[in-house]
């Protein structure tokens, strides 16, 4: 089975600076977003002359954990990674090799409940990071300890109430308390307030309603008090957001909701200081279908960004207008599975595209990817899997 796909290689710059590295980066993105039914064992990349450029090999243990990842370029190993696990499949060692030499590695330890209790990083044989963690009987973290040259440099302490709600977080540096945060809850264990202190002074404070919405948030920045106040309608939708600096209003957002005859919201109009700032449009199922953002200069709209979505929430187009002139846009097409199958970008009205043709095995995994630029074969990769 073959499927033709047209995709971007880095949006605006993808067609002015196409390299095998860019192609391969995009290939990795495709693989990471493809549902595999068998572990990937190898990826081979060739140029248009069928010369092998690079490849990656993957190895797994009997539990399916990745244990080796080896990268080759021009038939030489460039990078490799080794992973080790305990009997509970927790990662206990992670080693990276650069041209055959250990570049860095991490070692991890766990308690009997599989909680991470130690994390040590090594760079060129020297400890670069060292963290330890302690937990209570409910597996809630009590302490995070940070070491520098085997000495504790700083640590965090966590305290909880009888309902396991976090009520206090304290940060110590060199044995001195630097800051701490307090958290308060209502009778239903909903967070209603948090307050941050530093050197005995309040540095931040937030309040929440019974639905978890922030209704007020304040913090100090070099003795300047910044405050946000937010209001919501009965449905929990934000209707106003007011910004204060030292008690004076500097900005205010207002939101207008537009409903159709079936009382379904189809549009949000956001205003900043009474100017239309952005619009969001929805279909009858509540799915986003279009976003429009407006940018002002000297009280005049200079830039408009528009994005559109299909009924499954996939971004299908984006356009940027400068002073009413379309300067850049792209369009995307998806198949019934939600996979990207077509991408075309336009810059100042000129279209460019890079085409991928995929081949799949009987279980739907990618086995080959042919890359064409301006209609000419640029490179291709092959993929192998465990049986």
3D structure, described in words:
- This protein is mainly β.
- The chain has a domain of 102 residues.
- It has a 30-stranded antiparallel β-sheet, covered by helices on one side.
- The longest helix is centred in the N-terminal third of the chain and has 13 residues.
- The protein is extended and about 65 Å long.
Q: From the alpha-carbon coordinates, what is the Rg to the nearest angstrom? A: 27 Å
Mean pLDDT: 85
Q: Report the portion of residues in β strands.
A: over 45%
Number of strands: 30
Determine the structural class based on helices, strands and strand pairing.
mainly beta
Largest sheet: 30 strands, antiparallel
User: Roughly how many Å apart are the termini?
Assistant: 19 Å
Total helical elements: 1
Report the uncertain regions.
1-36
Molecular shape: extended
Give the fraction of residues assigned to helices.
under 10%
Q: What's the helix and strand layout?
A:
Elements (H helix, E strand, L loop, with lengths): L1 E6 L12 H13 L7 E8 L4 E9 L5 E8 L2 E10 L5 E8 L2 E10 L5 E8 L2 E10 L5 E8 L2 E10 L5 E8 L2 E10 L5 E8 L2 E8 L5 E8 L2 E9 L5 E8 L2 E12 L5 E8 L2 E8 L5 E10 L2 E10 L5 E8 L2 E10 L5 E8 L2 E3 L1 E7 L5 E8 L2 E10 L2
Antiparallel strand pairs: 1-28, 2-3, 2-30, 3-4, 4-5, 5-6, 6-7, 7-8, 8-9, 9-10, 10-11, 11-12, 12-13, 13-14, 14-15, 15-16, 16-17, 17-18, 18-19, 19-20, 20-21, 21-22, 22-23, 23-24, 24-25, 25-26, 26-27, 28-29, 29-30
């Amino acid at each position: 089975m073959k499927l033709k796909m047209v995709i971007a290689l880095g949006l605006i710059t993808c067609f002015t600076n196409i390299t095998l590295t860019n192609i391969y980066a995009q290939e990795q993105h495709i693989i990471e977003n493809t549902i595999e039914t068998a572990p990937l064992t190898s990826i081979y990349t060739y140029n248009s002359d069928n010369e092998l450029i690079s490849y990656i090999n993957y190895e797994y243990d009997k539990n399916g954990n990745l244990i080796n990842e080896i990268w080759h370029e021009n038939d030489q190993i460039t990078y490799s990674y080794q992973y080790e696990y305990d009997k509970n499949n927790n990662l206990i060692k992670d080693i990276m090799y650069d041209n055959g030499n250990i570049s860095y590695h991490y070692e991890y330890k766990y308690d009997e409940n599989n909680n991470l209790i130690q994390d040590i990083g090594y760079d060129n044989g020297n400890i670069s990071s060292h963290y330890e963690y302690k937990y209570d009987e409910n597996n809630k973290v009590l302490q995070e300890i940070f070491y520098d040259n085997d000495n504790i440099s700083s640590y965090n302490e966590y305290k909880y109430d009888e309902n396991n709600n976090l009520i206090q977080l304290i940060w110590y540096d060199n044995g001195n308390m630097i800051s701490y945060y307090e958290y308060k809850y209502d009778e239903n264990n909903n967070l209603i307030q948090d307050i941050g202190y530093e050197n005995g002074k309040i540095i931040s404070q937030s309040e929440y309603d019974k639905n978890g919405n922030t209704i007020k948030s304040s913090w100090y920045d070099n003795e300047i008090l910044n405050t946000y106040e937010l209001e919501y309608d009965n449905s929990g939708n934000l209707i106003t957001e007011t910004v204060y600096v030292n008690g004076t209003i500097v900005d205010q957002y207002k939101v207008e909701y537009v409903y159709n005859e079936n009382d379904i919201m189809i549009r949000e109009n956001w205003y900043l200081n009474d100017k239309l700032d952005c619009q969001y449009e929805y279909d009858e199922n509540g799915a986003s279908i279009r976003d429009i953002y407006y940018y002002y200069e000297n009280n005049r709209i200079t830039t408009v960004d528009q994005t559109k979505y299909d009924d499954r929430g996939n971004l299908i187009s984006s356009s940027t207008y400068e002073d009413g002139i379309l300067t850049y846009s792209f369009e995307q097409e998806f198949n019934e599975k939600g996979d990207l199958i077509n991408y075309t970008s336009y810059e100042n009205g000129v279209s460019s595209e890079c085409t991928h043709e995929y081949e799949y095995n009987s279980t739907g995994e990618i086995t080959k990817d042919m890359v064409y630029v301006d209609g000419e074969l640029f490179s291709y990769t092959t993929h192998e899997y465990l049986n």
